[in-house]
Write a structure and sequence with these properties.
The protein is mostly helical. The protein has helices at residues 12-20, 24-28, 31-53, 60-84, 93-111, 114-138, 143-162, 172-179, 187-204, 207-217, 219-224, 229-255, 264-276, 289-307, 314-333; strands at 167-168, 181-182, 185-186, 257-258. It has one domain: ABC transporter involved in vitamin B12 uptake, BtuC (Orthogonal Bundle). The longest helix is centred in the C-terminal third of the chain and has 27 residues, at 229-255. The chain is globular and about 55 Å long. The relative contact order is 0.18. Keywords: Cell membrane, Membrane, Transmembrane, Transmembrane helix. It holds the Pfam family BPD_transp_2. InterPro entries: ABC_transp_permease (IPR001851).
Length: 334
């Protein structure tokens, strides 16, 4: 048996492997690549850009502040991910956060117990999510209409019970939650990390996660296989409400008061983070780490533009452009 020489033709298997390996240009032009890695590439690009143009961006103090600011959005994006995975959307998310903050302030002022106030927040916002899910599934009403209606109703309810006035919340627990830290990260960051881990396990390592993605991918086929799609959707909206409650607690802890005002950027950025994270707007395809990185990217964008003294009027424009581009990528992938 003679050894192959340098001029001998390559084996068919080797040739097939070379042909199947995509070039860098083909990879960059593939919408699937950007759908999966848009948030990571965007975050790395922003870190490099702002690190060069504004060195203070990479300072330890600024990075810690950035992570603290991103914690609330990360939690909200997780809740939105479960809903979008069922091919739905939760427009009442920011209103639920506002109502949760108002309830926390009022219950704390009435009883003085922060634990009871936090429990009341979680119960109330989860109930809103449950209501959304029940109306959508049993009433057969489009999710856009239902959550738009609850957004308006919740906003009015929050203004009525609060009288439109903010409530100061003086709590040692909340103060420590906002300013305390364990290791390199503040407590809100650890809360966000815990939420990411729990949500990842629920989505990828439980029967519920399988049923959730099946329901979003093809509800009729999932129902034919015995999956109770209505219950899955109700659970997804309830999880979204639960995450809104956690975000409300973190928000009150951060600002020290319960403000009866909706921060619409929380809703828009939660959807933006989900899209940037590669979650399909058509349902059936989702991740948890992707939206979390997307939330970090959006927070880094706003932080960097602020350090560069860019007018706050341009910041929503930048976020909007990024969201539209990400949505176009998802559309081509579909």
């Amino acid at each position: 048996m003679s050894l192959p020489t340098d001029n001998a033709p390559a084996s068919p298997q080797a040739g097939a492997m070379e042909e199947s390996r995509p070039s860098l240009a083909a990879l960059l032009l593939d919408p699937s690549f950007w759908a999966d890695w848009a948030s990571v590439v965007g975050l790395v690009g922003l870190v490099i850009l702002f690190g060069i143009t504004q060195p203070v961006f990479l300072s330890v103090a600024n990075l810690q502040a950035l992570l603290l600011a991103a914690a609330i959005l990360v939690v909200l994006s997780i809740g939105q991910t479960f809903v979008v995975a069922t091919s739905g959307i939760d427009l009442s998310l920011a209103a639920s956060v506002m109502l949760g903050a108002v309830i926390l302030g009022l219950v704390h002022a009435a009883s003085g117990g922060v634990l009871a106030a936090c429990v009341a927040v979680i119960v109330a916002t989860s109930a809103i999510g449950l209501l959304n899910g029940v109306l959508i599934t049993t009433g057969r009403i489009p999710d856009f209409v239902v959550t738009l209606g609850t957004l308006s109703g919740i906003t009015g309810l929050g203004l009525i019970i609060s009288g439109g006035e903010p409530t100061m919340v003086g709590s040692t627990f909340l103060l420590k939650l906002a300013s305390g830290s364990f290791g390199p990260f503040g407590y809100p960051v650890w809360v966000a990390i815990a939420a990411v881990v729990v949500a990842h396990v629920a989505l990828y390592h439980t029967r519920f996660g399988v049923h959730l993605l099946a329901t979003g991918g093809q509800a009729e086929s999932a129902a034919a296989l015995g999956i109770r799609t209505d219950r899955v959707k109700i659970a997804a909206y309830t999880i979204s409400g639960f995450c809104a409650g956690i975000a409300a607690i973190l928000l009150v802890a951060r600002i020290g008061s319960a403000e009866p005002q909706i921060n619409t950027s929380l809703l828009l950025n939660s959807v933006a983070a989900v899209v940037l994270g590669g979650v399909s707007l058509f349902g059936g395809r989702a991740s948890i780490l992707g939206p979390a990185i997307g939330a970090l990217m959006l927070t880094a964008l706003v932080n960097g533009l602020t350090l560069l003294s860019v007018s706050a009027f341009y910041q929503p424009l930048a976020v909007g452009v990024i969201v539209v581009l990400a949505a176009l990528i998802m559309r081509y992938q579909k």
